[in-house]
Amino acid sequence: MVKSDYSIGILQYIPFFYVIWSDDLLSASEIAVVKKTIEQDSVLNSDEKNLLSQWLDRENPPIDEEFKQWKHTITNSNVKLIESDTYPLASLSQRLGNLHCERCDFNDHLKHIEINLGIQPNHYNHLFDVEVIHHKTSDFYDSKVLDGILKGSHAKAVDNFRSFLNQPSFHWDVKRNKEDFRGKVLEQVQLLGTNGYGAMAYGPEYGGTGNMPAYGAIFEHLMFIDGSLAVKFGVQFGLFGGSIQKLGTKKHHDQYLTDTGKAKLLGCFAMTETGHGSNVRGIKTTATYDQKTDSIIIHTPGPNDNKEYIGNALHSSMASVFAQLIVDGKNEGVHAVLVPVRDKNNTVLEGIIIEDNGYKLGLNGVDNGKIWFDQVKVPRENLLNEFGEIRDDGTYSSAIKNPNKRFFTMLGTLVGGRICVAKGGVGGAKMALTIAVKHALNRRQFNDSVKIQEDLIMDYPTHQLRLTPAIASAYVYHVTLEEMMKRYSDDSQPDKRKVETQVAGLKSIITWFANDTIQECREACGGKGYLLENRIADLKGDVDIFTTFEGDNNVLLQLAAKGVLSDFKAEFNSAGFTSVLKLLRSQLADKLSTINPIYSNKVDKEHLYNPKFHKHAFNYRTRRLTYTLAMRIRSYIKKGIPSYQAFLKVQTHLLVLGKAYSVELAYHTFNEFCTSVADKKHRVLLEKLGTLYALDQLYNDTGWYLEQGYFGGTKSKAIRQRVERLSTELRPHIEVLVDGFGIPEHCITAPIAK
What we know:
Blueprint: H1 8-22, H2 28-40, H3 46-54, H4 64-75, E1 81-82, H5 88-98, H6 108-116, H7 121-124, E2 132-133, H8 143-151, H9 155-164, H10 178-194, H11 212-225, H12 227-247, H13 250-261, E3 267-270, E4 286-290, E5 295-299, E6 307-310, E7 318-327, E8 330-340, E9 352-356, E10 369-373, E11 376-379, E12 389-390, E13 396-397, H14 403-412, H15 415-440, H16 461-488, H17 497-524, H18 536-544, H19 553-575, H20 577-594, H21 597-600, H22 605-608, H23 611-638, H24 643-649, H25 651-675, H26 680-700, H27 702-708, H28 713-729, H29 734-739
Parallel strand pairs: 1-2, 3-7, 4-7
Antiparallel strand pairs: 4-5, 5-11, 6-10, 7-8, 9-10, 12-13
């Protein structure tokens, strides 16, 4: 036996006290757990209990010399920390005690502390100068269960699709010649169409299942194959086919949808123009009705009024062209018209010019092009007339009399494409995170003079902090987009304006998140992440454009903010002055209850991890930004400034509100989802991911909260520390979490992920 200055009872607790005091996060409730355990430990005598209790006094912590003595005792013991032990820290303490007695019984009280304080090996393995027997990942949670939770109601469709993708046609390799690349992607799209996947969102009579949520799920999976494939698939079946399905009527469906779904009829979605970008209402292409010939004439009036960046432009034989519909000299607003652009021999038709956009930063497997129309004549029947039609007598008619409402109703039917773009961004982030995490679980770097081998880079707290909050965000955004697709697909709710507002903001924050995450993953993989074979480089180029197509993110955030303001205005107008007073009282109550030293500096774990705190903090930010924005606009207008100019003056405020609203929506949606998860064990893990997402977002916006007095400096610091702590706590389960994304093994082709 080895001699020690500590008694056997005290010695067993030393590793725990060393870990506890190395962590600034010891809260009152955690102290209570340790004190209660000590009181109930019958092995300890009264002197030992008193000494241990003294060491738990936050006002009089152990002196530095005592702390050093604890470390010296552990280091000189030559015991090993075995991370695969069921209770690693309690087992370490057991081995430490066994050095000083013949047969010490295992102290179950220590196990109780380890469980209740959530102490993980990666919290302390770097603190002890002992040999650490690492284990890369824990099997406490099951990735297949997580995958099943994320797949939800369309699990069968997703599983079948994953199996379908496991064939040579979808094998990823490096492609750098755009013509060859485009040819390969076209073949893949046609294969998908032939096997029924293109028509999935269409009705059974047109070869589909009417299942838009499942379509969204398979779109995301195509990002695991190649971004170009996902985008061309979305253009052909989602945008072109979707415009026929949503904006056309039965005659269009019967004539075009089946062939579109099978990729026999290749089409493009010609909305964006060179000179007008995101301003769809301001496009200049005209569709003028000629009553004499009963036809519509499509024309590009100016040099910058051509259609720009049109996917599928070089392969398609028909375009869904958005143009200003002019009937009897009157502009009836933007409508979509089907315009043939090539004949059966793939020759561009007369009056049409199509040019290749050329090489791009990414997505070079997509044939983007420019299109000009010179007095191109098409039959009147080619007008997609669900929301507006030209009658047989040559007059225009629409069930939606208000042109503004008609315009937004038409665009609202196409929100599914915006959801798919966001889902594609999440898919790209998932792939990058999976590659980066699996690399970090194999790559070793640095060590100290005691440890036998270098440490896994995934065991470094900095690496955990780089990747784990992003994994939590990916789960939150996946669930949120699934819910948005469900709402969008609900035909019992024809008015899609609210969903459009929600998706506009979510698409923005999610595609920015995807780009930031992919960049972080590239850096986290070092030079290996820069190699094309490891996929992240291509993901960077492909996902980059997601921030600007289907709506520029800065424009969409303003759209989302204006939607929030419209709801505010409706509430304001419904009750007049009383409503304003009610809002002011609410703001005042918030100020009294939250902006005080007790609340703004409350830092205990129970408060910071409580969803009620997260919801209140997010909601407070959204409501306060809404109120202050409305008051600023009102002030400008009262001064005689035109409303358009007033909005220009508050653009930055609009962006902040749009982001705040979207983050609150994502968190609230995920939190609600967690309550529906039947598997209690995995629900706890998902709730922890939700907590990490919330605290990470709050810390990212900590400047605003500090300005408002909602946080004090102490609370801001505590939130940062909790983000770091949660990232470390999730380290044992990090591979299970990325495997829970459900990316098929045959899609993870990056050598560094093997």
